[in-house]
Specification:
single chain; alpha/beta; Rossmann fold; 2 domains; binds 2-acetamido-2-deoxy-beta-D-glucopyranose; bisphosphoglycerate 3-phosphatase activity
Amino acid sequence: MGMAKVLCQFLAIFSLLTISFCAENFDVRKHLSTVTRYNAVKDVADSNFVPSTIPSECTPIHINLVARHGTRSPTKKRMRELDRLATSLEVLLSEAKRRLPEEDEALKKIPSWLWGWKSPWKGKKVGGELIPQGEEELYQLAIRIKEIFKCLFDEDYHPDIYTIRATQIPRASASAVSFGMGLFQGKGSLGPGQHRAFSVISESRASDTLLRFFESCASYKDYRKNQEPAVEKLKEPILDEVTSALAKRYPLNITRQETSSLWFLCKQEASLLNTTDQACGLFSPYEISLLEWTDDLEVFILKGYGKSINYHMGLPLLQDVVQSMEQAIKAKEEHHTPGSYEKARFRFAHAETVVPFSCLLGLFLDGAEFAQIQRDEALELPLKPPHKRNWRGSTVAPFAGNNILVLYSCPTSDASQYFVQVLHNEIPVPLPGCDYTDFCPFEVFKERVVSPHLKHDVNSICNVKQEQPEPCSVTSKFLKLFHFLFSQKKDDEAQFHKHKHEL
Ligand SMILES: *[C@@H]1O[C@H](CO)[C@@H](O)[C@H](O)[C@H]1NC(C)=O
Ligand SMILES: *[C@@H]1O[C@H](CO)[C@@H](O)[C@H](O)[C@H]1NC(C)=O
């Protein structure tokens, strides 16, 4: 920590731009891309946006939730990576010990936790499950939703009134159960918590076109497979930069792979164990912001605005949301009796679901970018720190990250008007497609946010194989891009504008 401070002061002298990374309150737990915990970011609103005041005559009549599962433990594959890290750290340390005299200052710089370090997940045979903190995230989310939309939850439970769907992946269905326990506690007769049973429905994981479209879309799978090496290439210069910084700071001959594993360890420690002074403490705040950016680039390219197939394949989910709203409006217009129509539809899935869904809504775009997306043009990559960027994995899809679409009915003298409000991580967000309001007339929402996507037919997008997979040419474009991104030249900006259309 002292290290970070000294470095900060040093940097601050040279560049005002770096000051933002040096603030005393830099909290690594907010900079873990999609490994960020919900609580670390849920109250971070865009301070430039003032949410609409909902007219008092308007009442919510239906809500849709699309949520990511809560905090989970690392997968088996990643746990083995940490075991390998322990082995190679041991080698590095004994090398340093052999090379340097016992009283050497450099040796004393090595943080004491590194000596004899073992992965906290060593010997664990299973991974990927929702952990107790993750249960808490969804449980508390349900309690807040029930409180905010009281009038929607005054009815007896029925599976057709409160629909709960999860993917067929245990951490997603456990998230749905945690949420349901929060939502319906006190409403049943089971145990002292007066719990009640509720149903969670899943499609088969291979044919879940609403929540696991990324698995049933063949051409997306091809795209992803072809693109992954390019994404790794894109990260290399940053990993190399951080690797040489670490090698200067500690007498350890660290490789790029070890830097990558240490960053992974930092994210797991900070997120799951609330430990920020071990692996995370090896990096300066600026280095963390660079590593965070590489993760955000990956999310952008493989799940977000980097390629239109990433979100167009999620259209059935958007249509399902709209259809649920139309049913709710019909029930309202036709005065259906309470208890006969749906009031909320809750869905629990993955970052690969929530990110594309947010893109379909046009979230996190500025005006020019929204126009580009509507013309099916690729966006430029999110800018490297210290430049500001809207696209942050920690905001777009932290653990338990979610979008809530609230349908409001606003009675007028002759008929009702309907509005849609989008809450991202429970905070109202402006819709670029709806003149940047967060309170969008339903007809405008359908016409300007949803309809432009409908010219794309999901079946043809997904089933038709790309005629000519061109991994080499795509890679070379990314190579060009990162040469310019990482070059130290002052004319970066000019070069950027030349290259961005090639993306
Ligand atoms: C560091 O490791 C690399 C490859 O493992 C090796 O080529 C290099 O000589 C080592 N440097 C030092 C200072 O030990
Ligand atoms: C995490 O650690 C911070 C101190 O760094 C402490 O204030 C906070 O209460 C801890 N959170 C949890 C959930 O233990």
